[in-house]
Amino acid sequence: MRRRTVTAGSLEEILEATAPAPAPEQPQAPAAARSVTPQDHGLRTEFEFELPRGYVDEAGTLHRHGAMRLATARDELRPQIDLRVKENPAYLSVVLLSQVITRLGTITDVHAGIVERMYATDVAFLQDFYRRVNSEGHTRAAVTCPHCEGPFEVDLSGGRLGES
Fold first, then answer.
1. How far is residue 46 from each of residues 30, 67, 160, measured CA to CA in Å?
2. pTM assigned to the model
3. CA 145, CA 121: separation in Å to the nearest integer?
4. Tens digit of pLDDT for each residue in 75-90?
């Protein structure tokens, strides 16, 4: 097996340099025959959440509701080449969360600076939420009632604790 050494400045350049050759072009079908209708495969790729405390932006607006998408392999690889992560490995979760959070209140461009300014409680919640949706595929958690000791499930993406 032959090894290939690639030196590049970004993940996109590395992926471009190691991409397989494109397949030969197929004759295109008429426009009517190639309708672009998304198929529903039953796979949920975006999950709504509500932060315990909420993010307060520069204007003083509180943002608590948001959405997180499933992570891709690229999402998990990209932080590995980020200089901030190389200098401080603890920064990995900040970069990773900033890539998979698609919306936070009215903010649609969630970047590392926003995640940096979140309360620690909210970052811990998002880290656990990320783990649940990407490892377990759902947002439910098994809990036990402190009064009757009966087991039941709660959905972590929904309302506040104690609300239904």
1. 33, 6, 20
2. 0.61
3. 23
4. 999 998 889 999 999 8
